[in-house]
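Please decode residue identities from the backbone states below.
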């Protein structure tokens, strides 16, 4: 398969990151928004789901917006849309996605296991979304810092 130049990171100079979860409605959407926010223009950030839901979970959007993280352009996408594309990082954020994730040759495969906040009991759901937000924030900040330092040293 020929990859269009705009999808080939070697021609754009931008790192390509794909976040995956089962429904692409909460965890991977939050990760996509956070990575865009913290990483800046040096990254093209996408998310997808094994079995995408029809819309982004309202509490995921509310959790991001409450912390001034832009949510423009977030919508569930099917993983099949990205199979065969080139990525620098493919990051699964749930165990089900890890089990069903196809191979992305050349990508650094990373797994971060987060429970689905949408499955938390109603009275604990906001806390669950906040916990996922905080965990993703820590890991994404670390990934960006380490990757940017690695680029500087090369």
């Amino acid at each position: 398969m020929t990859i269009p130049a705009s999808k080939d990171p070697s021609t754009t100079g931008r790192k390509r990151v794909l976040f995956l979860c089962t429904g692409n409605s909460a965890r991977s959407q939050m990760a996509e928004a956070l990575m865009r926010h913290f990483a800046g223009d040096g990254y093209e950030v996408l998310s997808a789901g094994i079995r995408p839901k029809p819309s982004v979970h309202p509490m995921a959007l509310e959790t991001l917006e409450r912390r001034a993280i832009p949510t423009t352009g977030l919508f569930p996408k099917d993983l099949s849309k990205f199979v065969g594309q080139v990525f620098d990082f493919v990051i699964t954020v749930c165990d089900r996605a890890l089990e069903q994730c196809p191979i992305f040759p050349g990508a650094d495969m990373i797994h971060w296991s987060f429970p689905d906040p949408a499955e938390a009991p109603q009275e604990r759901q906001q806390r669950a979304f906040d916990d996922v937000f905080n965990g993703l924030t820590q890991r994404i900040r670390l990934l960006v810092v380490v990757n940017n330092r690695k680029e500087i040293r090369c």
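Observation: The chain has a mean pLDDT of 89.
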